[in-house]
């Protein structure tokens, strides 16, 4: 089961109206999608995307029973192409991104995301994509591994962990999550309270293998022009690297072009394409009690000018 994070907050930020046209770029198990459909009337529509085949299977079931809903199994970096092919470009009332991995992905040891349950070291959201985590760890050199752990995991001990990985793989290929978790646990000299020592390494490798930050940059840049005037862009992030990208992107769109100060143009927002809506939203105490995975979630929203 996936417990949708910031569900009502996302619906409010999207301002779902009965005749609206929406995109859910991260279907997962359809928690947000179902809630959007519940607010739509017969003339509204929802298009969802996800690159995970298990999400696609869940979406197929929903599509059979609801003609307002359609789904495309793809990475969201193809957002503009998908939306254009359905003649919805510039006509969307809202686009939602609920980033990262779903609970079913994390909880299924066969997917290779979990440092708590042993399984094949895969970590691909789309298993048809070229390189698994094990394949990358087998081929990357120590400096590349260390750089990924530093930049995408903010791992203090990135050098030590990279050295330990390269040392261990010389003994035998690292193909299981359990083995990677214990290599990291041995290499990291101190523990962060309440965190498994491999948390940062697993996060970094997952983000790298799935090109998560590149996907996000690309999709955000495409999203703005797909919205109708007044349409809402809503993004839920789960770590600071994502949130920084979202925050900077929304602010730069809200600021508009950086023009030389002597141009005879009035108004501070010349060229702005978005207006920020409210402040960053975090889960309340009740949601955190019910779902500890919501801990690091942040929602940001903006409206197409
Ligand atoms: C946090 S879950 C979404 C949960 C969903 N909102 C729900 O309520 O069930 C994130 C989903 O986004 C998908 N995803 C992440 N990055 C993606 C990308 N670049 N392209 C397509 N899908 C992606 C993952 O496969 C995962 O199913």
From TrEMBL:
It catalyses: cytidine(1402) in 16S rRNA + S-adenosyl-L-methionine = N(4)-methylcytidine(1402) in 16S rRNA + S-adenosyl-L-homocysteine + H(+). It is found in: Cytoplasm. SUPFAM superfamilies: Putative methyltransferase TM0872, insert domain, S-adenosyl-L-methionine-dependent methyltransferases. S-adenosyl-L-methionine binds at residues 30-32, 50, 76, 98, 105. It holds the Pfam family Methyltransf_5. Its main location: cytoplasm. The keyword NAD does not apply. Belongs to the methyltransferase superfamily. RsmH family. Specifically methylates the N4 position of cytidine in position 1402 (C1402) of 16S rRNA. This is Ribosomal RNA small subunit methyltransferase H.
